[in-house]
Design brief:
alpha/beta, seven-stranded parallel β-sheet, 15% strand, binds nicotinamide-adenine-dinucleotide
Amino acid sequence: MKKVAMFDTKPYDKIWFDRLNDDRYEIHYFEGKLTTDTVSLTKGYDVVCAFVNDDIDKEVVEQMCENGVKLLAMRCAGYSNVDIKAASGKLKIARVPAYSPYAVAEFAMGLLLTLNRKLHKAYNRTREYNFNINGLTGMDLYGKTVGVIGTGKIGQVFVNICRGFGMRVLAYDIFPNNSLGYEYVDLDTLFRDSDVISLHCPLTEQTNHIIDEDAISKMKEHCYIINTSRGGLIDSRALLDALRERRIGGAGLDVYEEEAEFFFEDHSEKGITDATLALLSAMPNVIITSHQAFLTEEALSNIAKVTFENMDAFFAGSSLVNEVQYTYNG
Ligand code: NAD
């Protein structure tokens, strides 16, 4: 039986992987993250199954290869935490490209609705029998303009949701899909004309800090920024400064650029050392969630199903349709 080492395992992962395994694989669930400190644990395993905040740098890749690992099965869509160049030709990598675009897109709209209609404040008030609604004024989303950056699977579902609200959609994508009939514009126009901006592109060298001081300076003062993609898309320091100076309306963040140290864990007793995250969390017009946009029953089931399919295909020697490959681009 092939042996799988799963890192950063949470109870909800185990439920779905145990349910769909059918005793095909011997899975060892490690709670800790895969890092240079833990990579020695991969010795003797055929597959390593990792997630978004495992730190799979060159050293980890090389050590896994030395330890005899044959496949890195990412149980997520993004792979910006993997040194795919280092793995090229040495270690096969598979991912789960789509497990529920609805889960993430619906969550993005949830963040927007909460932020705009101040549901987080209302919830806290009524729990203390404070039924005063002063300060809870939002705006109609109907008729407003939403700028969507990245019109892939999640971006498209989000566009449909926004259209259901009667919003005008502006789109930006490095590869515009003209069959979608979207109003594609350049980034400057999107920044300038949007009341809401939602990020749905991957984190790459090109998109790193796509929302920076300069981008924010072009936005409307009441603009809401929603990020359910990857934290590195936003320069958090620039975002914090803009929020403090009231140069934008607010932010709904399911991801944060330095999230790996904190997200998915309970830090309520010891607190956090990241001053930017602490200040952002304390702002009334910021909602931070802990990378949970994917967290639906359907998504978890699909993640386990496709991860098993990837492993089955790899060991059967069939084509690995969800392979992640390094492409040299100068
Ligand atoms: P996708 O590959 O279907 O779509 C990504 C889109 O971004 C593509 O259309 C691509 O052309 C575009 N893009 C690439 N580079 C770009 C650039 N430089 N500028 C503008 N657009 C660019 O991916 P998806 O399934 O829609 O997922 C989008 C992102 O959502 C993922 O990369 C991942 O980081 C994130 N995600 C987050 C969660 C969560 O729980 N918060 C869950 C799943 C995915």
